[in-house]
Amino acid sequence: MNCEEFWNGEPHGLEHLRECSACATRFELQEELVWGLQQLGALTRHLQAPARVEAQVVAGFRGRMELGRRPAPAHLWWTAGAWAAGLLVTAGIALF
Amino acid sequence: MTPNADDQLLIRIHSGDEQAFVSLYRRRQGAIYRFTFHMSGSETVAEDITQEVFLTLLREGLGYQADRGSLSGYLFGIARKLVLRHLERGRHDVALESGIEDAALPALTADVDPLRELTRREGLEALRRAVLALPRRYREVVVLCDLEEMDYADAAAALGCPIGTVRSRLHRARALLPDKLNQERNGRPAVRALNPARCAI
Fold it and tell me: Are B78 and B112 part of one and the same domain?
């Protein structure tokens, strides 16, 4: 097995580490990095958004629900206006 | 709770159940916050994006389709887009406003060697900065798979790419990290300091 095959994840690759000191060093380095990343992950796993973020999103939820319950007056006025304009135009055409 | 519990909560949210929304928020906010914190290096950005993710869910939650992936993946997808937008805006201004706060570290006990503890803290802080210095596509797999210990399938769903891509990016990221770490520590021997048990001191 050569170095490339080892790093491409060939089965039983660990045998290669006994023969190649460069790969052994690099492999040990990566093992320690993964260990360090696990430590870093464990150290920060308790981090959470502060309570004020929850308050903001809950306020957003309430606002959205409130909006959903209310009729849309502007929308209704536009609809009524469009109908009235349509009727006027129709009546105008009929008269002239 | 089963994984489908998120979907159940979402159904209740659509019918106006505030408690369901709070439950979903509490289940998922921590992971979203940590992801954005590790990606941006900024607590403020992480707060803003976490908030925006859940407000976006309220606005666009109907766009989520359970048969195309988990709700968690959908939320990570929103967070990722917002982080990318933030990083694009401040490409030359990577925030490093805080390190690992003291409160985040376990308290020192009598049997802890203060010098080793300091070495460990310095090592981890350097590693955090090295992760931040990785190109974005490598950083996100390290954050999800190594820091958050997410499995490859979930990470692939969150990133919207095949599992093989996650594997290869993680492999490449781990290969890049030693150089980034050495740059962070100005050429000092870096990785050894991460493991106090192997320190020669």
Answer: no
Q: Are residues B164 and B80 in the same domain?
A: no
Of B16, B54, B147, the CB nearest to A44: B147
> CA separation (Å) from B112 to A60, B22, B109, B115, B126?
46, 40, 5, 9, 21
Q: Which residues of chain A have pLDDT under 70?
A: 9-12, 69-74
ipTM of this complex prediction, to 2 decimal places:
0.74
Distance in angstroms (rounded) separating the CA atoms of residues B61 and A65: 14
State the residue for tokens 């990470």: B155
* Structural domain boundaries, residue B110: 102-198
Regarding whether B53 and B117 lie in a shared domain, the answer is no
pTM: 0.74
Encode pLDDT of B26-65 as tens digits: 999 999 999 999 999 999 999 999 999 999 999 887 678 7
| CATH number, residue B147 | 1.10.10.10
CA–CA separation, B139 and B112 (whole Å) = 32
Whether B64 and B117 share a structural domain: no
Within 8 A of A4 by CB-CB distance, chain B residues are none
Is the Cβ pair A54, B22 closer than 8 Å? yes
Residues of B in contact with A59 (CB under 8 A): none
> Can you tell me the distance from the alpha carbon of A34 to that of A25, in angstroms, rounded to the nearest whole number?
14
Nearest CA in chain A to B168: A8
Query: Residue B106: left if φ>0, alpha if ψ -120 to 50, beta else—which one?
Result: beta
